[in-house]
Amino acid sequence: MDIRSSFDALDKQFTAYGGLIGGGITRLLYSEEWVNAVHALKSTLEKEGFSTRFDDVGNLTGRLEGSKYPNEVIASGSHIDTVVEGGHLDGQYGILAATVAMASLKEEFGQPLRSMEVVALAEEEGSRFPYGFWGSKNFFNLADKNDVIDITDSEGVKFENAMRNAGFGFREHDNDYSDIKSWIELHIEQGKVLESEQQSIGVVNGIVGQKRYTVTLHGEANHAGTTPMGLRRDTVVAFSDIVTHLTQRAREVGDPLVLTFGSVEPVPNTVNVVPGGVTFSIDCRHINQDELNVFADEITAYVQKVADRDGLTVDIDLWMDEAPTLMEPSLVQQIEQSAQKVVGEQDYRVMSSGAGHDSQIFAKYVPTAMLFVPSINGISHNVNEETELSDLVKGIEVLKDALYNLAYKE
Ligand SMILES: [Zn+2]
After folding, report:
1. Which of 133, 308, 369, 379 is the most exposed, having the fewest neighbouring CB atoms within 10 Å of its CB?
2. What would the DSSP string read from start to end of 113-149?
3. Using 50, 70 and 90 to split pLDDT, how confident is the model at 22?
4. What's the gap in Å between 19 CA and the centre of ligand 1?
5. Mean per-residue pLDDT for 215-233?
6. Residues annotated in the binding site for Zn(2+), as ranges?
7. Ligand 1 centre distance from Cα of residue 198 (Å)
8. Distance (Å) from CA 78 to ligand 1 centroid
């Protein structure tokens, strides 16, 4: 089978489930579009000779039975949901790529020694309901009914009602994932690194850890006309010092450290009052836990120092503290060999992922690796999300080679 035309046809077919005029997809968990997509995928997989099964919540698995080691499973896939007005590649690409790669292996080499499975995870984005990773968290028996029993979508539809309407329910049987010997997720990069390096493949060695803070500085609101500069306790001035200094420090530390002040709210936020308060966010990520911790200490020390210097008080709330997730080194190495063979030394790089993925859940339980292809202009979570078809094909070819080594070789 021709990988390029097979993938392209499937991509066009599946982009129609929730497809938007002008491109992109809105396919939210348990929506009509989502239901259509999962059932269409089931038919597609069955047509290609996979046996299929849904778990209780709607994760779909397609399986090609292994001839010699059927209880050793080599799995690949991603999530089938999208964000609101998302692109056609985030998640969908990983599922269709795995389908095409495995179907093409079967056509060329027949039945594998080990079983191969395509996994379409029900949900990752947290776009319809305020809960993310519903698919992978159920796949590993982590999600709890009580997490979602009271939540509703923006229209007021209860999670459970949406789920039951879609034909699924809460997990009643634990999934057995102990057979999975390797999990590979192929995904778009959603960043600009590969594009700027003019490379087609990223072999992911880990997913960054992140710390998120909400910081509030308390000073004194006062008259903008009658309060001399020397007598102010101006929180926005302190805030801008913090941003400038820490951003400079982050640049000095260099990649892959990233630091973002994405949200800021001065109080009272008006033109003629010295801002007596400011609340802002800090998002800091790094692939190495020690280096993340060291920079985090520098953040809190500097915020405190500026507050002391300017006569302010400060509250620092660290509300997210996620450890980096390392991919399985031996699997990363195998995939690197496939990349070397398929696209050559110059066309791939080993890199970390700055975004979260289902694979960070998988990595805790099964040997896990990820592959990236470039995103044009780094755009994702947007209807304009795109990747050159030639790069999408290269991604599938690297995946196919890796799957061959894992499932067809002794
Ligand atoms: Zn994704």
Report:
1. 308
2. SEEEEEEEES--S--SSS---HHHHHHTT---HHHHT
3. confident
4. 17
5. 97
6. 79, 90, 125, 187, 381
7. 22
8. 7
Distance 22 CA to ligand 1 centre (A): 21
Binding-site sequence positions for allantoate: 212, 272, 285
Over 90: is that where the pLDDT of 399 sits? yes
**Can you give the pLDDT at residue 285?**
95
Distance 240 CA to ligand 1 centre (A): 34
Q: What is the pLDDT of residues 169-211, one digit of tens each?
A: 999 999 999 999 999 999 999 999 999 999 999 999 999 999 9
- Is residue 369 scored above 90 in pLDDT? yes
* SS3 annotation, 222-247: EECCCCCHHHCECHHHHHHHHHHHHH
Sketch out the chain's domains with CATH numbers.
3-208+324-408 (3.40.630.10), 209-322 (3.30.70.360)
User: Which ipTM value was assigned to this complex?
Assistant: 0.97
Q: How far is the CA of 135 from the centre of ligand 1 (A)?
A: 12
- Buried b / exposed e over 256-288, threshold 16 CB at 10 Å, is bbebebeeeebbeeeeeebbbbbbbbbebbbbb
Residue 80: pLDDT band (50, 70, 90) is very high
CA of 79 to the centre of ligand 1 (A): 6
Residue 196 burial (10 A CB sphere; 0-12, 13-18, 19+) = exposed
Query: pTM for this structure?
Result: 0.90
